[in-house]
Amino acid sequence: MRSVPSIVHLDLDAFFAAVEQRDKPSLRGKPVIVGGVGTRGVVATASYEARVFGVRSAMRTAEARARCPHAAYLTGRFAAYRITSRAVMAVLREISPLVEPVSLDEAYVDLAGDAGRDLSAAGVEELAAALKERVREVTGGVTASVGAGTSKLVAKIASDLRKPDGLLVVEPGAETDLLHPMPVGRIPGVGPATAERLRRIGVHTVGELARAGEPDLVAALGQAHGHALARLAMAEDDRAVVPLRESKSISAEDTFEHDIVDPALLSAIIDRLGTRVCERLTRERLSGRTVTVKIRLFDFTTYTRSATLAGPTDDVRVVNRLARRLLAEVDTSAGVRLLGVGVSGLADWVQEDLFGSAADVDLAVGPRPRAAADVDLVEAVGRPPAARRNPTADVRAGPGHGAEAGPRSDQRVPGEPNPPRWSPGQDVMHTEFGPGWVWGAGLRRVTVRFETAATGPGPVRTFATDDPDLAPYTPLTWDPGLRVSPKKARPASPAP
DNA sequence: TCTGGGGTCCTAGGACCC
DNA sequence: TCTGGGGTCCTAGGACCC
């Protein structure tokens, strides 16, 4: 927790609905509801005029229609929201480079770091008031609620308290007086399930939460959640404002107007969803190893099935084939309400499929080949730019980093002992398995020397990427019985 | 006419490795 | 041959957020 209220939280009021009212003057002053308009739709955003009738986010659209039949019901125009959001984020970055967008309509700003700034409560309030005015200008009239305080928690709660179009700076030292009377559900991260568990141990307010012992909270909520809430209740929150968050998964899902039984149709939908995901992967220059299929049945029971490839891919054929296989693991004969496809385990480099085919990759489901650090790399060249996701590879690093070699997971024989590993000081690694991988995250060129028992010193092969910016993930095949020579026995560097 | 779509983080158990 | 602890990876599900 800081000594000055230098964290600002900005929240655009009823954002989607506000953009609609801005673009269609006839909607101004009227209830506007943005969300799914079908029979299974839910409300994404309700304008304040609609909230008067009790319409809320996440409410079924059918119920919203019952409460507020005269409202305008609109599906989202996300391109417009995105453009408006970008303009707001740009305004925030004029104030400080430390801007963390939480969603299209929400962001934190860290004012610390600018030594010359007046970070007194009065100074921050003046800045926030000017900020609200700038946001209104650049968005064409969309209003924002702004909170500021000594932590993310306090800034967020402050902006919540003054919605809509409000401003609150919480003075340092006043945090617990503000928080303690509140119901626990006001703390972000405390939803219905957590609130119920807390109620059962007699905790209803943040003050009671602060007085509860951490051991009791951990027992009721688990280690991470219990510990985090015990701290938040005492306004202890040192979470940083993180300007750049890397995405961890990309997914697409669809709820159907009517439940689907036809397997061929389900398969076709899986393909469509997988294609959507891969298009995004490609556009964002990402690839991923884990494919997940989500299946919601007619009765809302929900299954996920996932499988992890030996190497990352953004290949729509690979993703779709695997997704269809995962779909087949679940009995869908009674009707499917929702299907989803996701890819996680993201890397920001694309597999260079130099020696394999998509079909090979598809087969290579299973854990990534385990590390055999210090494998016989004759030479490894290339360090990725610091900005890239994969940190600099250290060829001599331990498991999980740098160069690895091992059998392809799909080539392992269950029950058989694991293949030999390379260890420092070892002269020769005998490989008795078939096809193998050499993997060098962050490397651009990898040279491997082979030596066979039969032929003596064997071929030297170099694997490289075309794009100097990319790391290779190079599946290569070597012959059973091949021996690999150690680094210390290497000859002069071979030409690539 | 019950319950969206895009995400993140956590837990727990099993496999496997050292 | 047995025992065991710690760590990582993978899978499935759940809570939560906007």
TrEMBL record:
> Where is this gene product found?
Cytoplasm
- Write out the GO MF terms: damaged DNA binding; DNA-directed DNA polymerase activity; magnesium ion binding
The positions annotated as site (Substrate discrimination) read: F16
Q: How is the cofactor bound?
A: Binds 2 magnesium ions per subunit.
Catalytic residue positions:
E106
Short name of any one Pfam family annotated for the protein:
IMS
Q: Which SUPFAM superfamilies match?
A: DNA/RNA polymerases, Lesion bypass DNA polymerase (Y-family), little finger domain
Q: Where is the UmuC domain?
A: 7-191
Q: Which GO terms describe its cellular component?
A: cytosol
Highest rank taxon of the organism: Bacteria
The segment annotated Disordered runs over: 382-428, 455-496
Specify which residues bind Mg(2+) according to the UniProt entry for this protein: D11, D105
What is the stated purpose of this protein?
A: Poorly processive, error-prone DNA polymerase involved in untargeted mutagenesis. Copies undamaged DNA at stalled replication forks, which arise in vivo from mismatched or misaligned primer ends. These misaligned primers can be extended by PolIV. Exhibits no 3'-5' exonuclease (proofreading) activity. May be involved in translesional synthesis, in conjunction with the beta clamp from PolIII.
Task: Quote the subunit structure annotation.
Answer: Monomer.
Similarity annotation: Belongs to the DNA polymerase type-Y family.
Instruction: Report what the protein is called.
Output: DNA polymerase IV
Instruction: Tell me the organism.
Output: Actinopolymorpha singaporensis
List the taxonomic lineage: Bacteria, Bacillati, Actinomycetota, Actinomycetes, Propionibacteriales
Gene symbol here is dinB
